[in-house]
Design a protein that fits this description.
This protein is mainly α. Helix 2 crosses helix 7 and helix 7 crosses helix 8.
Length: 193
């Protein structure tokens, strides 16, 4: 099993190869991907997470699940868990927590805004990320180095001009005047001590 240190070393190596992005950009993308997947698909069932970890540790492609069960190549407890979770086909649907390039770009924007507010574009810029295509370059560098997986239909072009950094962060970050008005009223009301 890979350790966090191994993971960090791999990210640093990928970063050195690509040369145009800070290591922090890669880590942000991984965290932002988790954020986006969670928002789109909800939390992962713990049993499903264990099963995915089992597959990942052994280099098993989840798409091979029906064939592995049919040929009796999985340990009995794993086969039983698959059956308890609805069978191979249902489980394969639930394991697919894929997000499109466009969805990821919007998720990364929202994640950046939640972390840094209006400073988000400046932080991303300091890491070399200036457009959505930069997200795609990082994603595909991680895919090419086995850190992330992609679907056959995923292309780097999915990240082209999803939004303009000049406007997307300003337009997405809204301060509600109604909320400010309520807060101001609450501050001006006398306390009953």
């Amino acid at each position: 099993m890979a350790t966090m240190q191994d993971d960090a070393a791999k990210l640093n190596e990928i970063c050195r190869k690509l040369e145009r992005y800070s290591p922090a950009a890669f880590e942000f993308l991984r965290q932002g991907l988790d954020y986006t997947v969670q928002r789109m698909h909800g939390p992962m069932n713990p049993a499903l997470a264990r099963l995915l970890q089992f597959f990942q540790e052994r280099g098993i492609d989840p798409l091979d699940l029906p064939e592995l069960i049919e040929s009796d190549q999985l340990p009995d407890p794993v086969e039983q868990l698959v059956e308890q979770m609805g069978g191979a086909l249902d489980l394969m649907d639930r394991m697919n927590r894929h997000v499109s390039g466009s969805d990821l770009c919007f998720g990364l924007r929202d994640y950046a805004l939640s972390r840094w507010g209006l400073l988000a574009p400046a932080v991303l810029n300091s890491w070399g990320i200036r457009e959505t295509k930069d997200f795609g370059r990082i994603v595909f560098a991680l895919v090419d180095n086995g850190v992330l997986q992609k679907q056959p239909e995923d292309r780097i072009e999915d990240f082209d001009a999803v939004y303009s950094f000049d406007r997307a962060f300003d337009d997405a970050y809204k301060i509600s005047l109604a909320d400010n008005k309520k807060a101001a009223q609450a501050d001006s009301e006398p306390c009953d001590d």
